[in-house]
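Ticket #4471: structure export looks truncated?
Reporter: QA, pipeline team
Priority: medium

Steps to reproduce: submit the single chain below to the structure queue and open the exported record.
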Amino acid sequence: LVFAVPAVAQPLPAQKSDFHLFLLIGQSNMAGRGKVSVDDKRPIPRVLMLDKNNRWVPAVDPMHFDKPVAGVGLGRSFAEVIAAANPEVTVGLIPCAVGGSPIASWEPGGYHKQTKTHPYDDMLPRLHIALRRGTLKAILWHQGESDSTAELAPLYETRLTKLITRLRSEVGEPEMPFIAGQMGRFPEQPWNEHRVAVDAVHRSLPAKVKKTAYVHSEGLTHKGDKVHFDAASYRQLGRRYAKAFQDLTK
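Actual output as written to the record:
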């Protein structure tokens, strides 16, 4: 099955086992807000993404479509490392992140007012469409800013643990790798106690939940808004996620 993408269509592998899928979920720092360059539009051999119309196309930025400001994220640099390390497979990314979405909207029936979407319920059919052609290898999560409040931070650990369990149950794999990334920590915008609390949940995941990893964001810089990484930092973050995945699945 080859979809019409001018001059760069890449066929899907005949075997599901040769098409390694990765689910990208969370809020805007997973969706990506980096400035897109010409290079970000160049297809990478054997790296595809499920577009908003549920078609497999070359993975180019912006990969997400949650908001018009979507830009460079961590997906492409992540996939590039995975594809290079596994020359016999094709990598498929399933972008489903929604900017501004709190973790409560990543529950069945959860609604996100700002984008008028149901992040979890919208993600599920896309995941199952992808699974018809490939095999899920990991879930990549970057989220937490919207839950860094006095009211929501204390509930975060329970909600995240439930989300991991629910997703693993959905794909029938109780130890599906789940990788959480650290929120941006920028000197110009010191964290409050609630953001520290949410980060502590991410940080403690590997000690509490099997087959999970935590990716730090040390040394990364923002794009000028003190919230979102810049394009170079997203690419670096993607490579860190790739290393975490490789370490987790050795």
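Status: closed, not a bug. The export was complete when the record was re-opened. Leaving a note from the reviewer for reference: The beta strands are 19-26, 47-50, 56-58, 90-95, 135-142, 178-181, 212-215.
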